[in-house]
Amino acid sequence: MSEQMPRDLGSRDPTSRDHAMSVAAISSGRIESDENIWTRRLVLFLRVMAVVSMMQGLYHWAQVTGFVGTEDDAFEVQTMGWQTATIYFAVIELVSAVGLWLATPWGAVVWLTTVVSMAVIELMFPTIYGGNLLIVGVQAAFLAGYLALAWMAARERPP
């Protein structure tokens, strides 16, 4: 006396469910790509900044370890301020590179800290790295680019 339920109510066909899910994923991806263009641009910018941060961090580590520079420029003969700033940037640049690549909020915060720190050191303590205004300008341009992209990405998402 076993009664079977109608096929459309009782049994689930995994292929039809997978097909429905794949169609929904395709259609939602198409809508999402049109609506989130600024978010995608922001993530691309963060990835580019991650590569830049990694290169800067590796450069600072090369200064610490002696891979770049001459004997006159060796880490040991530099001032305490220069050594401290170089170690600081060697560590924080690599941390920010990881966070930026993953597009995490903490990565952006750490990166913003490095940008502001470098600008402050160049402007307020010119004896450490020489007070190069070009570096300050580039850091300001990176910061302005990030703020503009973050603002545009936030506008395309409803509150």
Task: Tell me briefly what this model is.
This protein is mainly alpha-helical and 159 residues long. It contains 7 helices and no strands.
SSE layout and pairing:
Blueprint: H1 7-10, H2 14-35, H3 37-65, H4 80-101, H5 105-124, H6 126-129, H7 133-155
Helix pairs in contact: 3-4, 3-7, 4-5, 5-7
What does this structure look like?
This protein is mainly alpha-helical. It has one domain. Helices cover 78% and strands 0% of the residues. The chain is built from seven helices and no strands. The chain has helices at residues 7-10, 14-35, 37-65, 80-101, 105-124, 126-129, 133-155. Helix 3 runs antiparallel to helix 4 (80-101). The N and C termini lie far apart (57 Å).
Core attributes:
single chain, 159 residues, mainly alpha, DoxX family protein, membrane, DUF6163, transmembrane
Order of H and E elements: HHHHHHH
Give me the secondary-structure category: mainly alpha
Q: Given the C-alpha coordinates, what overall shape results? A: elongated
Helical stretch tally: 7
Overall number of structural domains:
1
- Uncertain regions: pLDDT < 50 for 5+ in a row? 21-32
The biggest sheet, with number of strands, parallel, antiparallel or mixed sense and barrel status, is: none
Range of helix content: over 70%
Give the oligomeric state: single chain
Cα gyration radius (Å): 25 Å
Task: Report mean pLDDT, rounded to a whole number.
Answer: 84
InterPro entries: DUF6163
Organism: Tardiphaga robiniae
Keywords: Membrane, Transmembrane, Transmembrane helix
Pfam families: DUF6163
